[in-house]
Write a structure and sequence with these properties.
The chain contains 13 helices and twelve strands. The protein has two domains: 7-148, 3-Layer(aba) Sandwich (Rossmann fold); 165-354, Rossmann fold, CATH 3.40.50.170. 36% of the residues lie in helices and 20% in strands. The chain is elongated and about 75 Å long. It binds 5-O-phosphono-beta-D-ribofuranosylamine.
Length: 364
C-alpha cells in the first residue's frame, strides 16, 4: 500500500488493495470511509473536510479523479497538479490512509469494487443532488451517506481567481441606481473606511437628478446619466447598449444594482453573467418585484429583511448570496420598515462585495 512510501516511488493504491483493506477492517468490526474528488490545489477547506470525514470511521480512502476526468469536469485548464502529485500530497495527510485514482467522471464502479461502510461528500451536495447512479451504487453496497459542511470561502476556484487578479488589483465596481442612493453611499463609505477593497469605476443612473448621481459627483467618481428612453418603466435598447459601453470602457469586474429600478437586458445580462449583484428588500424568494416592503406588511409577515443575490434574466430569481433579517414591529409603516431593512442592506452589500473573490464568484 502506498502510505509511507518515499516520493520517488509513490504510486497510488489499486481498487483491489483498497478492497482488501476494507475486508480486513470489516472482519474487525471497523469501518472504511470513502470520499472522492479532484483535490487539485489543497487548501484548509479540504484538510478540515478530510479530517471530519475520517472521524466517521476507522480508516479512509480518497478516490481521486484522474487528470482526464478532472479535465472533463472542470475544463481544459485543470488540473493544475497531475494525478500522481495530487495523490502523493493527499496521502501525506494524517486523515488519509490510502488514495486510489479513478478515470471515470463518477466513482460508481469503484464504490461497487471497494464496498465502503461510509461515504462522505462535501456540503455542496445534498443526498438528493448526488449523482443518481452513484447513490444507487452506495445503496446497493449498504454504505451510509454522510454530507459534511464545507468551509465557506475556501475553494480551489477562489484561489485560482485570486492568483489571476491583477497585482494589488481592487475589484472594479460599476454601481447602478435610480433613487436616493443610500446603498451606494454605504459602498463609498466602506471603501473610504478600508472595509471594502474595491473601487467604483462607474456610477450609472437613469435619473438625472437622483441623490444617487449627486453622491457620485460629490465623491469625485465617474458619474453617468443614461437617458432611459420614452417608456417610463422600461430601459430602451439604446440605453441598454449605452450602459454596456460604459461597463466595457471602465473594465468593470462586478456590476452592482443598488436601487436600480429598471430591468437590465442584453447585452449586459449575458456578457456580465455571474458578475451582476442586486440588493432586494425582502427575504427572497418571498416578495419579488418593486413593492416588496408593502407586500410584506400586507402579507402580515412578522419578519422581513433583504437579499443580496446574483442577477439573471428572470427578475429577483438569481442565486442568493446573503440575507439579513429584521423584525416587523407593531405599527410599522412601509417607510419605517424599509428604513430598518436598509440599515441591514448597508452592512450586507459591502460585505458580500468585499468577499467576492473569496466566495469564488466570477470576475472579468
Ligand atoms: C433598497 O432598499 C434596495 O433593496 C432596493 O432599492 C432600495 C434602494 O435604496 N432594490 P437606496 O437608493 O440605496 O437608498
Amino acid at each position: 500500500m502506498s502510505k509511507g512510501m518515499t516520493d520517488a516511488d509513490f504510486t497510488p493504491a489499486t481498487a483491489a488493495e483498497v478492497r482488501q483493506l476494507r475486508d480486513q477492517l470489516d472482519a474487525q468490526g471497523k469501518k472504511l470511509v470513502f470520499t472522492n474528488g479532484c483535490f487539485d490545489l489543497l487548501h484548509a477547506g479540504h484538510v478540515r473536510y478530510l479530517a471530519d470525514a475520517r472521524a466517521l470511521g476507522d480508516a479512509m480512502v480518497v478516490a481521486l479523479n484522474s487528470d482526464a476526468s478532472v479535465r472533463a469536469l472542470k475544463g481544459p485548464d485543470r488540473p493544475l497538479n497531475n494525478e500522481n502529485d495530487r495523490a502523493e500530497v493527499l496521502c501525506a495527510l494524517r486523515a488519509v490512509d490510502v488514495v486510489v485514482v479513478f478515470g471515470d467522471e463518477r466513482a460508481t464502479s469503484l464504490i461497487e469494487a471497494i464496498r465502503p461502510h461510509v461515504y462522505a461528500k462535501g456540503g455542496d451536495y445534498t443526498v438528493e443532488s448526488l449523482n443518481a447512479e452513484e447513490r444507487a451504487a452506495l445503496q446497493s453496497v449498504g454504505a451510509e451517506i454522510r454530507i459534511l459542511p464545507l468551509v465557506p470561502g475556501r475553494s480551489t476556484t477562489a484561489t485560482i481567481q485570486k492568483m489571476h487578479a491583477p497585482q494589488g488589483g481592487k475589484l472594479r465596481l460599476a454601481v447602478l441606481g435610480s433613487g436616493i442612493g443610500s446603498n451606494f453611499r454605504a459602498i463609498v463609505d466602506a471603501i473610504q473606511a478600508g472595509k471594502l477593497d474595491a473601487e467604483v469605476v462607474a456610477a450609472i443612473s437613469d435619473q438625472k437628478d437622483s441623490g444617487f448621481l449627486a453622491i457620485a459627483k460629490q465623491a469625485g467618481l465617474p458619474a453617468h446619466f443614461v437617458d432611459p428612453g420614452t417608456n417610463p418603466k422600461k430601459l430602451g435598447e439604446a440605453a441598454q447598449k449605452e450602459i454596456f459601453d460604459h461597463l466595457e470602457r471602465a473594465r468593470v469586474d462586478v456590476v452592482v444594482l443598488a436601487g436600480f429600478m429598471r430591468i437590465l437586458k442584453e447585452p449586459v445580462i449575458s456578457q456580465y453573467s455571474g458578475r451582476i449583484v442586486n440588493v432586494h428588500p425582502s427575504l427572497l424568494p418571498k416578495h419579488k418585484g418593486a413593492h416588496a416592503v408593502p407586500d410584506a406588511l400586507d402579507a402580515g409577515d412578522t419578519e422581513a429583511g433583504c437579499t443580496v443575490h446574483l442577477v439573471t434574466a428572470e427578475i429577483d430569481a438569481g442565486a442568493i448570496l446573503e440575507q439579513g433579517r429584521v423584525p416587523v414591529l407593531p405599527g410599522d409603516t412601509a417607510a419605517v420598515l424599509h428604513d430598518r431593512i436598509k440599515q441591514v442592506e448597508h452592512v450586507l452589500l459591502p460585505k458580500v462585495l468585499n468577499e467576492w473573490r473569496e466566495r469564488g464568484l466570477a470576475v472579468r
